[in-house]
Amino acid sequence: MIFLRGLYRRHLHPLRKFPGHPEACVSTAWAYSEALKGYPEETFEVLHKRYSKLTTLRVGPNELHISDPELYKVIYKQGDSFPKYGPFYESFAASHSLFTETDSVKHKERRRILSPMFSRTGILKLEPLMHEKLSLLDSKIEKLCHIKEIDIYNAFRLLTSEVIMQFSFAKSAEMINEHDDNFNSRFTDALTAAVHSVSYAYENPLVGYIGKCLPAWILRIMSPEMSKVLDLVEV
């Protein structure tokens, strides 16, 4: 059965004409292995150049990677032309959020409710919040820069996370000053773990389903990584 499925995906599948890594057309294992390396887009870029700079690359049995920015509005315009791929969004274990909703009618309604918050007027109202968080970040960088090297990547992760947190929940998580001598945070550690867990759940959907059914305390015992993800939910 696996052999026949591989033959179908390689020679009869609707995406068979798109070039890509030889293993990509057979299963999602290749894309998953690239994701584990940390930044699969670098590999995709190399393959795009290898295949005469084609803008469309097959990275999975049912998945394409497109590098042409002109196609962004075509793919993401409102409508049913390119519906969200259910198996991928189910990996986030956040059913019916604006990000994961695959039903176009429900997604449109949720987007209508939230759109005013992301209008120009809505964003301008955030300026005082941005100035407040930038001031906190600037003060901490000024304090630490004379003492030690600073991980500026983590610093700006905390800045954006703090702004989004307060914008979304009207509550500060105090991440920027969580530690006096660095820019580490329980939240960003959990966020990193969550990204890895999504890739794993997509590649192993049964494990993801079982994980959603188990009590949180069991998940914490079974997996330190999952414990961090649960920390993210609690934050």
TrEMBL record:
It comes from Colletotrichum higginsianum (strain IMI 349063) (Crucifer anthracnose fungus). The keyword Heme applies. Transmembrane segments: none annotated. One of its GO terms (molecular function) is oxidoreductase activity, acting on paired donors, with incorporation or reduction of molecular oxygen. The keyword Cell wall biogenesis/degradation does not apply. SUPFAM superfamilies: Cytochrome P450. Keywords: Heme, Iron, Metal-binding. It comes from the Eukaryota. The lineage of its organism: Eukaryota, Fungi, Dikarya, Ascomycota, Pezizomycotina. This is Cytochrome P450. It holds the Pfam family p450. Belongs to the cytochrome P450 family.
